[in-house]
Each structure stands twice: as structure tokens, then as C-alpha cells.
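The data are quoted verbatim for reference:
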Amino acid sequence: MNLFSQLKEDIAVVFDRDPAARSTFEVATTYPGFHAMLFHRMAHRLWGMGWKWLARFVSHLGRWFTGIEIHPGATIGRRVFIDHGMGVVIGETAEIGDDCTLYHGVTLGGTSWNKGKRHPTLSHGVVVGAGAKILGPITIGANARIGSNAVVVKDVPEDATAVGIPARILDSDAEKERNRQAEKLGFSAYAISADMNDPMVKAVHCLVDHSAHTDRRLDLIMAQLEKLGAGVPKEDTPDDFDPNYLNRIVD
């Protein structure tokens, strides 16, 4: 792909994923994510030619100019969009596939000082929400979504959504249904929507509901025992368990 075609593709992807984009001139002159990709391609080519210091210097200029730090050794595919971009950090051995989207504050970092592969691999179509940290030589599957401020330290399967600290995978069946609905509505910004429940919160709701159900069953048993004339001791201390209140404060 020649330089002109690549520039056209980079500008087109901004219009695809950012409804605020108004004109080609605006994108070319004011979008730091677009500028960061230009700096990185230049630095990455120099890095591959063995001009390591010059590559790092070009990368440093790009960081100063855009607020986005991409190591020249990182491998980035086509149609990658960095929205807003301030505070994004991409490490040396990171690999980003085609059609990925990264929001501001994202870190693709390492967890080791050892040489070799130490940064994440993002397969194609991954969306990483604002402030998310993906750490270590892990793999994020194709079309996966990483929720805002998540901290991911384990592999994420394709088409899954990971949220929380440390990141947990949302219910896969429910997530597939949400994805089908999202396709009808368009691009899902920040990789997470308002109706997505944290799996830990969902588990707490289930426990509270189960406890309330158990209490109702015990009350029925106690009532039947009293009818049969069994001596059932009365509780001196009132039970303050309120499942509705607990469910409200967990949300």
C-alpha cells in the first residue's frame, strides 16, 4: 500500500468511528491519534532499518506533539484508531491487529524486565476503553472488548468483554446478545454499555436472592412445625436481613 492510500485509509477510519469528525482538513490537522500513527510509521520503519536512536527520537517527537507514546518497535496493523489519545502508552513488543480502537489513557504494558516478548497482542477488531491497562505477553482475542479502567492480566477470548480490576469476563451468552443489538445501533464507544453488569455484582445478587428464598422456605417449615405442636423457640433478636435493600446498594 502506497503512502497516499494509507493516509486516505487512516482518515476514513476516523469518520467511521468518531461522529464528531467534520472534515478531512479537520482530521488531518487536529486529530492527535492520526498524527501519532504518522509518527509511528516513520519511527517503525527507521527501527526496522537499524536506525534505533533516530527511531526513538522520532517517537519522542511524536509523544511530545500528541501525548501518545508508541515505542518504535511496536507492530501496528491497518485502520487502527486512537481516539483522543492523551496518555496512551504502547510498549516495544506490543502487537495490534487491524481495525482496533484505543481510547485515551490505555496502556499496553509489560510486567517483566526480561528481554523478549513482554507486551500484549491485540487481535483484529479489539476495542479498548479509556484508562484500561493490558499487561504482560497476553493475547486479546478478535473483536473482544475491554471495559474502561479494566486491568487485564490474562488472555481474553474472542468476542468477549472484560471488565473490572482484575478484569473478569462477562457472561458470554448475554454478551453475544448485546453484541447483536450493538451491531444494529452502530459502534460501541468505550467498549462497554450502560446495561452491562459486573459478573461479581451479578453473583452477589444471586446470593442475596438465594438467601431470601431460603428464609421464606424456613418460615414455611417453622409454621408447619408450630401447627404440629412442636416446641419451636422464638428468636430474641429481630432479623434485619432485607434483600431488596441489599440488591439496591450492590448496583
User: Anything to note?
Assistant: The first helix runs from residue 3 to 17.
